Q: What sequence folds into this?
């Protein structure tokens, strides 16, 4: 199963993606986490990545596309994966389309978690206290939101147009458990029908 989570920072993409990944036993690919992990190596490239992340700017498409194209080919992605934080630009979305096509893979669902800016700002302020992420500062949140509307919102529009049937906009302003159980219900139903279709097709051969 291949799922993509879209939405502004602080919408709850990571929290939902983690729970679903566990339930379906597929990897949760958070590009933010992958990048933060890479920062443990200190070199010229990671210095630049850190600078971009800390200031709320995006890291280059070239770096992100290379991370994802390598990651989705690994063995643990054989039964699918969840993308959280990627694609974040139209270039990345087009690159991903190409990668999926090359590997004969199809997206099952795209979830856009929608949430008001004021809630995003207050959630990230709370997270800043708990997780102490440098990019959760007041100024950086504004840059991240700005980049979201400028670069990532067009990705949502692109997917909505292209994959209307599997594109779901979800209200992110609800309890974590509530949202999670709605998503799981939807995905289990989807999975059930996929199995039925598969059985019908294989018995017809
Ligand atoms: P959030 O979703 O809360 O903004 P993430 O942990 O997903 O945080 O990402 C943190 C930072 O990592 C982003 O602000 C950006 O600098 C960088 N990043 C993550 N994913 C991408 C991506 N697909 N393209 C460019 N930069 C990215």
A:
């Amino acid at each position: 199963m291949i799922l993509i989570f879209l939405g502004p920072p602080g919408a709850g993409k990571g929290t939902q993606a983690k729970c679903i990944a566990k339930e379906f036993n597929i990897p949760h690919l958070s590009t933010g986490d992958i990048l933060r992990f890479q920062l443990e190596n200190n070199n010229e490239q990671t210095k630049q990545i850190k600078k971009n992340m800390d200031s709320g700017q995006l890291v280059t498409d070239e770096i992100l596309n290379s991370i994802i194209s390598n990651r989705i080919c690994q063995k643990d992605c054989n039964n699918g994966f969840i993308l959280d934080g990627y694609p974040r630009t139209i270039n990345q979305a087009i690159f991903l389309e190409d990668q999926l096509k090359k590997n004969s893979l199809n997206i099952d669902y795209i979830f856009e978690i929608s949430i008001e800016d004021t809630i995003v700002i207050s959630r990230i302020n709370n997270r800043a206290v708990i997780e102490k992420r440098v990019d959760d500062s007041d100024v950086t949140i504004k840059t991240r939101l700005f980049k979201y509307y400028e670069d990532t919102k067009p990705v949502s529009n692109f997917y909505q147009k292209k994959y209307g049937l599997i594109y779901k906009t979800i209200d992110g302003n609800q309890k974590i458990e509530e949202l999670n159980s709605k998503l799981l219900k939807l995905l289990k139903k989807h999975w059930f029908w996929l199995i039925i279709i598969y059985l019908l097709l294989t018995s017809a051969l």
Summary: The CA atoms of residues 63 and 76 lie 21 Å apart. The longest strand covers residues 109-114.
